[in-house]
Each structure stands twice: as structure tokens, then as C-alpha cells.
TrEMBL record:
Residues 24-275 form the EAL domain. It comes from the Bacteria. This is Diguanylate cyclase (GGDEF)-like protein/PAS domain S-box-containing protein. Coiled coil: none annotated. It comes from Deinobacterium chartae. The chain holds residues 768 to 1046 of 1046 of the full protein.
Length: 279
């Protein structure tokens, strides 16, 4: 009967909810031990100057290789780490590793900027700026080699607190990028009140360029440039998008069409191949 079918559907729904909850709690337990067990690794996706083609920077992207589950994508475990608060120690590990890698590159004579993703909870944490300062000091790095990527919700939740934090980071020489711009709750008007350096246009808009000739992206770039912001396009997957972005004056770009996220040794090889800058 329909009634019986409804009951079965409900039972099935409850069972899958419980399974989901168990999976969530299990993942949270696993995350607690992942740092100590050395299951995390950073990958590095190149960012290229779209006008000259030069490799300019990398974005550090966290990878988790679970011994039983295999690779767990960040879109799966970052939200869990944020809910349970584990993102704070994990984020500290990421910053430490990013600085360690910058140190190795500088020791090899390779000067490059590295962008690191920062979760909203991590940014809101009272010790955040001093932990960044400590990591720079630990590896004897100038802040200017580090860029921190914050999304709109991290920046907009408390505009005044954000402004203070960003000013403190800028005093260290660290630059700040707005990640996934256009997907969250912000506007360029709000951003004008925050000392950010870079706008990262979300992949969603880069995808949409296939259908709309890029007028929207072109106006974002024009406004960002008027505000003295550098623009990075995310998720460039095709030659057509690359060409359009170049034409409308986008500064930097990253995406599978240009380069995948790389292991540290591959990223180093990319830097070694890089044509020396003239002048
Ligand atoms: P995000 O910061 O916006 O990073 C860009 C994501 O797009 C990365 O996914 C990257 O691998 C992917 N991507 C790059 N090029 C392309 C492309 O051409 N096409 C498509 N479809 N995707 C592309 P990933 O590595 O899976 O990371 C997902 C998200 O997880 C990141 O988005 C970021 O929000 C978060 N995340 C990654 N690493 C960290 C970290 O160390 N800390 C924190 N808090 N979040 C992180
Ligand atoms: Mg990012
Ligand atoms: Mg992004
Ligand atoms: Mg994104």
C-alpha cells in the first residue's frame, strides 16, 4: 500500500541519515589524528601572468590521503573540520608547511609568492595574526611572499574586526585575496573599506563566459582595477576562456587548462624551467 511504502521510505531516510551522521563523526575522529600521522600534504597550483605567460605564484591546496578511505577531497573534509573546530590546528599546519616550502624555494634561489586558503573560523580566531607572524619568523621569511585567501563570508561577517586583522597582516607585508568572489555575500562597495590586494573571480563566472562573451567578468575587472586590485581568474578550463580573459585585461589566471595542482617536486621543476625575468 501507499502507506506502507511511505513508512519504508521514511525508515530508509532515517537509516541513511544515521549512516551520514556516523560517517561525519567517523571523519571527524580521523581528522583528529591525520595531522600527527602525516596524512596531509600540500599541492601547488600555478598562477600565470595572463599578459606575459610568466609563472607568478602558486596556490597551496590541501590534500588528505587517508590510509583506508584513500584520497578525501577538501570539499568533503574542510566543512567537517570547520564544524568541529579542527580547522584551526589543521590551518596552522598548512601555514607552517607553506612557509617551510617557501623557505626551501628561497634557499634554492627561487622567488615566488604562495597563496594559502584560510577558513572563516581560523581568521576569526584571536591568535590568527600572531600565528602567521610566528610562522614567518620561524622560517625567516618576508611577509610579501605570502598571500592569504579569504572568502567573502570570512571578511564580511564582522567588517570592523576584519579591517583590523587585515591591517595587521598588511603591516607584516602579507597580501590578502578575496577568494571565490561573486559567489558570496559581498559587493565591491564593501570591499573598498577593506585593505585587500587581490580579487579571485570564481570559476562560476569564468564558466559562464562561454555564453555571455565575458561582459560581466569584464566589468568586474574594470571595477577591481579602478580600486587598484589585482584580478585572478579561477578555473580556466579552455583556450577560448583564456583568450577572452587575456583580451579583457585579467592579470593572472589558474585552471586545469594552464596547470593542475602539482606535488612540491613538480612545482619546483616548474620554477626551475621558468624563463628568467629580464631587466
Ligand atoms: P578554492 O580555494 O577556490 O580552490 C580552487 C579549487 O578549484 C581547488 O579545488 C582546485 O583544485 C580547483 N581547480 C583549479 N583549477 C580548476 C579548473 O580548471 N576546473 C575546476 N573544476 N576546478 C579547478 P580543491 O583543491 O578540491 O579545493 C577545494 C576548496 O577547498 C578550495 O577552493 C578551498 O576553499 C578549500 N581548501 C583547499 N585547501 C585548503 C586549505 O589548506 N585550507 C582551507 N581552509 N581550505 C582549503
Ligand atoms: Mg583559494
Ligand atoms: Mg577559489
Ligand atoms: Mg572556488
Amino acid at each position: 500500500s501507499a502507506k506502507q511504502a511511505g513508512k519504508n521510505a521514511l525508515r530508509f531516510f532515517e537509516a541513511s541519515m544515521n549512516a551520514e551522521l556516523d560517517a561525519q563523526q567517523d571523519l571527524e575522529r580521523q581528522l583528529h589524528r591525520a595531522v600527527e600521522r602525516g596524512e596531509f600534504e600540500l599541492n601547488y597550483q600555478p598562477q600565470f601572468d595572463l599578459q606575459t605567460g610568466e609563472l607568478r605564484a602558486f596556490e597551496a591546496l590541501l590534500r588528505w590521503q587517508h590510509p583506508r578511505l584513500g584520497p578525501v577531497p577538501p570539499t568533503r573534509f574542510i566543512p567537517v573540520a570547520e564544524e568541529g573546530g579542527m580547522i584551526v590546528p589543521i590551518g596552522c599546519w598548512v601555514i607552517d608547511q607553506a612557509c617551510a616550502q617557501l623557505r626551501r624555494w628561497q634557499d634554492a634561489g627561487l622567488q615566488v609568492r604562495l597563496a594559502v586558503n584560510i577558513a572563516p573560523l581560523q581568521f576569526a580566531h584571536g591568535d590568527f595574526v600572531s600565528s602567521v607572524e610566528a610562522a614567518l619568523a620561524r622560517y625567516g621569511l618576508e611577509g610579501s611572499f605570502l598571500e592569504l585567501e579569504l572568502n567573502e563570508s570570512a571578511l564580511m561577517t564582522d567588517l570592523e574586526a576584519s579591517a583590523r586583522q587585515l591591517a595587521a597582516l598588511r603591516a607584516l607585508g602579507v597580501s590578502v585575496a578575496v577568494d571565490d568572489f561573486g559567489t558570496g555575500y559581498s559587493s565591491l562597495a564593501y570591499l573598498e573599506r577593506l585593505p585587500v590586494n587581490t580579487l579571485k573571480i570564481d570559476r562560476l563566472f569564468v564558466d559562464a563566459m562561454r555564453n555571455n562573451q565575458g561582459t560581466l567578468v569584464a566589468s568586474i575587472i574594470a571595477l577591481a582595477h579602478a580600486m587598484k586590485l589585482q584580478v585572478v581568474a579561477e578555473g580556466i578550463e579552455g583556450a577560448d576562456q583564456l583568450e577572452a580573459l587575456r583580451r579583457i585585461g585579467c592579470d593572472l589566471g589558474q585552471g586545469y587548462h594552464l596547470a593542475l595542482p602539482l606535488r612540491a617536486d613538480e612545482a619546483t621543476a616548474g620554477l626551475l624551467e621558468r624563463a628568467p625575468v629580464s631587466g
